[in-house]
Amino acid sequence: MNITWNAKEYKDHFSFVPSYGEDLFSLIDAPAGSRVVDLGCGNGALTQKLAERGFSVLGLDASAEMLALAKELHPGLEFRLADATSFHLEEKADVIFSNAVFHWIDDQKALLRCIADNLKPGGQLVCEFGGVGCAKSVHDALSYGFARRGLSYSMPFYFPTIGEYAPLLEEQDLRVCFASLFDRPTPQEGPDGLINWIRMFDQKPFSGISDTLTQEILKEAASRLRPILYQNGKWVVDYVRIRIKAVRL
To answer: Does residue 146 sit within a domain?
Structure first.
């Protein structure tokens, strides 16, 4: 995963991430007691919700800071530090669930191979992540700001189409039985909601750039995007999501 998380800031001001993820539960049709792995569990908010539905849960995440918070908030649940592309389960899972994680992973083939290896035959992958066009206006504005200063903006996310992603799943014997790509405009908190969103989620392009120049680019982007993304007194980022259910053959 190509980001370093501020776990407290994420919990306090970006709780919409797990909140939206609850809607994904409708795609899980495993019975109570099934072993469900929350891959990229973050602070454990959705792991807890899965446990409340009667599943035997395990939360995996690559961020030690996020896991420390998850263990503090949900002391009765099991959490482990693990890389999504190389984790190993002693007992294969009935369901691997993942919300807002896959777009951070550079090696998609390794990710899906690892998931397939850790699912029982007939086991389910239920996931949602950024799809093609996600936050496009934000990335376009930042790219423009970088280019104006002779810099190159490198987009740190993987946002595929369904047509791109389904074959990757099928290569790993994961049969796609549901796939949807949809717009989900996402409101942000406060008057600086857009800048705070960029600082939380889009860190990598600013690596090595001074704080002064970073702030200049962010303010310019916010000014360019205000007519588009500032709606009824709130910043609303133009999210696009891809939602998938696949079954291990």
So the answer is: no
